[in-house]
Write a structure and sequence with these properties.
Length: 119
């Protein structure tokens, strides 16, 4: 079991920055792929970025060059640095931890944090 708690959301003007944090507890965080997802009103939840235990990253095209995902396995934390924010980035952002162990997918989610980009 992994418990995830996000923080750092809020209201920011277009072009501004926010840093989201994800604190993990429970199981061995370093064994999981960590990711950030978001869900805008009326839309499906979508992948924003993922980072493996070794630090390999994947970004959705719309955030490449603007967002940076990172993790600190020693501190059981992850983060998403978001720069040059656009109104289209407005959504609830969720932290995710996933791994497959003995053929069983283990998938955990935080409660979400609201990010609103508006002037």
């Amino acid at each position: 079991q992994v418990q995830l708690v996000e923080s750092g959301g809020g209201l920011v003007q277009p072009g501004g920055s926010l840093r989201l944090s994800c604190a993990a507890s429970g199981s061995i965080f370093s064994a999981y792929v960590m990711g950030w997802y978001r869900q805008a009103p009326g839309k499906q939840r979508e992948l924003v970025a993922t980072i493996s235990s070794s630090g390999m990253t994947i970004y959705t095209d719309s955030v490449k060059g603007r967002f940076t995902i990172s993790r600190d396995n020693a501190k059981n934390t992850g983060s998403l640095q978001m720069n040059s924010l656009e109104p289209e980035d407005t959504a609830v952002y969720y932290c995710n931890a996933v791994r497959t162990r003995y053929g069983v997918r283990q998938d955990y989610w935080g409660q979400g944090t609201q990010v609103t980009v508006s002037s």
